[in-house]
Amino acid sequence: MRGTLLALDRMGTNKGGSGGVVINISSIMGVKANPFGPVYSATKHAIIGLVRSLGHDFHFKISGVKVQALCPSLVKTELLANSMKKAFSPEVVQALSKFTSGLKDLTAETVANSLVKLLEEGRNGACLVVEAEKEPYYVEAPISS
């Protein structure tokens, strides 16, 4: 979040910048509930809220900066396996391991291609979800006027 605010401060046309695009990395757990990692899920929901708020036309008209989010599902990595063991209770690790064993692998290449898609066609405030073996899709939420 701090990085997004710093980027707006440096990139904003109202601050002498040229405008541009800021893409935040959230997670599918920022748009769905996650009983295995409630704090992780809450932080990802916060990113979505920030993107939707700063991605409003009000802010774009001031700064010339689009704000978007990429929301990949689980990418199985060694980092994930190690962090699960350190961060969660044995019960959560067991349940999460069972849950993730049935998931299709989402590759870094798929996430990268989706990032390009978001850059090329995503509107301001867009949140693009990326899941294995599915076409990336945008999630919408009501925006107050």
TrEMBL record:
Gene3D superfamilies assigned: NAD(P)-binding Rossmann-like Domain
Keyword Chaperone: no
InterPro entries recorded: NAD(P)-bd_dom_sf, Sc_DH/Rdtase_CS, SDR_fam
Enzyme Commission (EC) number: 1.1.1.141, 1.1.1.232
Catalytic activity, as annotated: resolvin D2 + NAD(+) = 16-oxoresolvin D2 + NADH + H(+); resolvin D1 + NAD(+) = 8-oxoresolvin D1 + NADH + H(+); lipoxin A4 + NAD(+) = 15-oxo-(5S,6R)-dihydroxy-(7E,9E,11Z,13E)-eicosatetraenoate + NADH + H(+); resolvin E1 + NAD(+) = 18-oxo-resolvin E1 + NADH + H(+)
Database matches in Pfam families: adh_short
Leader peptide range in chain numbering: none
Residue ranges of coiled coil: none
Enzyme class: oxidoreductase
GO MF term (any one): 15-hydroxyicosatetraenoate dehydrogenase activity
Family: Belongs to the short-chain dehydrogenases/reductases (SDR) family.
Function, in words: Catalyzes the NAD-dependent dehydrogenation (oxidation) of a broad array of hydroxylated polyunsaturated fatty acids (mainly eicosanoids and docosanoids, including prostaglandins, lipoxins and resolvins), yielding their corresponding keto (oxo) metabolites. Decreases the levels of the pro-proliferative prostaglandins such as prostaglandin E2 (whose activity is increased in cancer because of an increase in the expression of cyclooxygenase 2) and generates oxo-fatty acid products that can profoundly influence cell function by abrogating pro-inflammatory cytokine expression.
Protein name per its UniProtKB record: 15-hydroxyprostaglandin dehydrogenase [NAD(+)]
